[in-house]
Hydrogenobyrinate a,c-diamide synthase (Micromonospora tarensis), 451 residues
Amino acid sequence: MVNAHWPLPRVVVAAPASGHGKTTVATGLLAALRRRGLTVSPHKVGPDYIDPGYHALAAGRPGRNLDPFLVGADRIAPLLRHGASVPTPADIAVVEGVMGLHDGAVGRRDYASTAHVARLIEAPVLLVLDTTAQGRSAAALTLGMAAFDSAVRIGGVILNRVGSARHETLLRDALAEVGVPVLGAVTRAAEVAAPARHLGLVPVAERAPESVAIVTALAELVEATVDLDAVLDLARSAPPLTAPAWDPVAAVGGPAGVERPRVALAGGPAFTFSYVESAELLTAAGAEVVTVDPLRDPALPAGTRAVVIGGGFPEAYAQALTDNAALRAEVAEFDGPIVAECAGLLYLGRSLDGVPMCGRLDSTARMTDRLTLGYREARAVTDSPVARAGEPVRGHEFHRTSTDPGHGDAPAWRWNDTEHGFVTGRVHASYLHTHWAGHPDAARRLVEACR
């Protein structure tokens, strides 16, 4: 049992902007601390799916998201405590930030920013600085980041992309002037990079052997360049967590009936985008959650009563998906509820870039040059297996594809005065990614729809 006042050591890895090396440092820290024999709980600010995959590989337990916009600010500390408690209590939690430290949801000041989350979980910040073409100005930048919000404590700096020993000395001397300790320095030559794709890093599940090698290299990099004892001391300076742990059983109100319907959750390399809490909520609502890989499995698991197909990169696997004709045909005829987000929407359509998909929806999809990205405040238009008409939901879009048409006669959602997605029979499909911890009734409603 975890005490009501849990002195969980924790630290937030942040940066002044994207591209400074947060993921490199956070993933390397997770792996290096685990190699020390510590149980490490990995977390990510924001709606990102890919970084948590690297975190999970590094920590040996699921990477979890902390996103106030999607789940509400009051759930952030409880979700941190839950994630750090299961399957066993962690010795330390490492939270990777999103974008720049103070960058929040557009039009909402710093709401849902890394700084916002750091305040909610009362964690010190470890600031990662890209020092390319910078000298003493790095100290001024750090001082400004710290002074901008006095409630956010920057407890140390990791210097990244340091050019030389002389450059490092200059930077350390400048930061000493403003009283911020340097806890590590990574040279440009030593930096480790993971291959990227149009939506960010290539997911771990798509390239497991290479991913393991990258995580190992990041662990060795951090061990060689970061003062891990100083990082641990910083993490231990966080006050005890007093918020109760989030409980999926309480969130859904317990099992929805006595039977345990089997819910198939799409996984494998093509469908890697799923929040851990979704499966936990479905289980808490009474479902038996099983995994199906649309690339390789010729059929849905026996006894499947509902299917959930999340996000991913089906465009990178279109031919393999179409070659699995048996599963596509079964999904096309499946008479239970189906919930599909983004990649799932594409898989259910007639075709993707001209390659046949399931044909369950009367739509086609294609890759575009335009990135659609951002938070959405949506409202359900049509009753479906996951929402009642009129219900407000917060979500996130992140894709470079479009569908024709953009919505069906019975749309799934409406936001920005436009209708989106499809509700066809017992199918609910759209581009909107939602975090069910923010609206747990979706899990209970889906289990009830299995009857």
About this structure: Residues 2 and 89 are 7 Å apart (CA to CA).
